[in-house]
Amino acid sequence: xxxxxxxxxxxxxxxxxxxxxxxxxxxxxxxxxxxxxxxxxxxxxxxxxxxxxxxxxxxxxxxxxxxxxxxxxxxxxxxxxxxxxxxxxxxxxxxxxxxxxxxxxxxxxxxxxxxxxxxxxxxxxxxxxxxxxxxxxxxxxxxxxxxxxxxxxxxxxxxxxxxxxxxxxxxxxxxxxxxxxxxxxxxxxxxxxxxxxxxxxxxxxxxxxxxxxxxxxxxxxxxxxxxxxxxxxxxxxxxxxxxxxxxxxxxxxxxxxxxxxxxxxxxxxxxxxxxxxxxxxxxxxxxxxxxxxxxxxxxxxxxxxxxxxxxxxxxxxxxxxxxxxxxxxxxxxxxxxxxxxxxxxxxxxxxxxxxxxxxxxxxxxxxxxxxxxxxxxxxxxxxxxxxxxxxxxxxxxxxxxxxxxxxxxxxxx
Length: 413
Prior knowledge:
Layout lengths: L4 E4 L5 E6 L5 E8 L13 H8 L11 H6 L3 E6 L4 E8 L3 H13 L5 H20 L6 H9 L14 H5 L3 H11 L5 E7 L3 H11 L23 E7 L5 E8 L7 H12 L5 H9 L3 E8 L6 E9 L5 H17 L4 H18 L3 H14 L4 H10 L3 H11 L5 E8 L3
Parallel strand pairs: 2-6, 7-11
Antiparallel strand pairs: 1-2, 3-5, 3-6, 4-5, 8-10, 8-11, 9-10
Helix pairs in contact: 1-4, 9-15, 11-15, 12-14
């Protein structure tokens, strides 16, 4: 159970306080309601670029990391299609340093042209190293536009293509910052050995003077229901042939989200899952295979992926996968099998809540979804899933017309 209280500053910044006096540290987590889905299709990768730019100095603080290191703090950030999240962990006695640092870069970045050039180079190199120059690295650069036709989930967080970052101007950067990096477009969670009164006072001191911006009202194109199976085949210098099967599913708030999530666990979570047991252990067709869901705010993806043993064709592997899916669609799973994946899911939640930072991030995301209490009801929703729910999810999601398939073939020498 994650306890919390919250308040809103006059400029619209929502502040949540999670007191935990059993620890000597504190966490300050700021979630900005902007991700790669908020970009223009001709200017992608900006949310991720900003994740880097925010560490390049702000209006009154030329070096972000230096002051934090002096007080024993650590920081990092991540970007997803839905959010951009920044966090600081430090000794609780030094919590004001975190307020000072985060408020100054929310107030205004330095917009130093040298910083833009440095971070542009870093992001371009990351694009090349992680997505273009390693085996299977470009899979999602191909799968996203195959599965999404109109929704901005169709490009990866890193961006659609390198040229968008190469051509980013300072005017582009400033426009992005002043549209999204606003107190009224952010959620702050302060957790650890702090008090509500302390956080209120520090929030008023450091964040209240920052002016609110124009409210951002998201109006994204909705992906139409997929009516026909899609297929793509590529060949590259990779060690093994690989198979990817991707299905549309509901977003995080959909009524059948947890049933679909548990369905993916039952199919492909760990070595006791159906896919691994049958295709890796028994039939020895795959070197590795699994399934997962994207867990996105808006309608997301159910993913099955596997790498085949040398000498086994992708077609043979896909046929074996389909037999397992057909069985799930036709027959109910065993109660013991469902209980196992429920236990796994609940364990993940429990272990995740051990870390103070995880609690803060989960609370921020739940608040963004519209109900912070979701952090305390997830286990209950998981336990409520029945065998019938699993079968209904399989019948709804794992259909041929709802599937996009990618054959990733090993290049012939």
